[in-house]
Amino acid sequence: MFGSIVVGTDGSETAGEAVRQATELAKAIGGRVHLVSAFEPVGSQRLREERAEAPDDMQWAVNEREDVDATLRAASEKIEEAGVEVDTYARQGDPADAILDVAEEQGADLIVVGNKGMTGAKRFLLGSVPNKVSHHAPCSVMIIRTT
Fold first, then answer.
1. What pLDDT is stored for residue 126 in this prediction?
2. How far apart are CA 116 and CA 15, in angstroms?
């Protein structure tokens, strides 16, 4: 049914819950997890300045590649410890686009995302990963209630 599951992570609690539930589902049905994280490379001075000013839900935009790799490594270790096969993808650019691209490339059966950012005016001003994914996914989407 859902043999190929794509889930994104930025290291946040919301993403952690989505990864946890995607892992449980994959384990229960013998599926594989495709773990995605997005990044925007920036200079170290700019990184320091923007990190101090960025809202929590935009932290992905100021992560260095090394941070993204560390985030993927930590999450993938937990998935593997659960006995689930996992592939990781660090992609430059918008997180929703990264998730959608991997889902299409891998022929995913399901995308799992957390619901953070789905309500309020910010969704209309900035957009949100779950909103964009739910409207453009090439497969079913499970939105995990995390807030």
1. 42
2. 9
* pLDDT tens per residue across span 111-123: 999 887 544 444 4
Buried b (16+ CB within 10 A) or exposed e, 45-58: eebeebeeeeeebe
Overall residue count recorded for the chain in this entry: 147
For residue 111, CA distances in Å to 48, 121, 138, 140 come to 32, 25, 9, 6
What angle do helix axes 65-81 and 13-29 make, rounded to 10 degrees? 40
Quick check: 111 and 131 in contact, CB under 8 A?
A: no
Q: Is the alpha carbon torsion for 13, 124, 110, 72 positive or negative?
A: negative
The set of residues, in sequence order, having a beta carbon less than 8 Å from that of 125 and lying 6+ positions away, is none
Instruction: Give the whole-angstrom CA distance, residue 45 versus residue 7.
Output: 31
Q: Going by CATH, does the domain composed of 4-144 fall within 3.40.250.10?
A: no
The confidence band for 12, taking pLDDT boundaries of 50, 70 and 90, is confident
The structure's pTM equals 0.80
Question: Counting beta carbons within 10 angstroms of the beta carbon of residue 134, is it exposed (0 to 12), middle (13 to 18) or buried (19 or more)?
Answer: middle
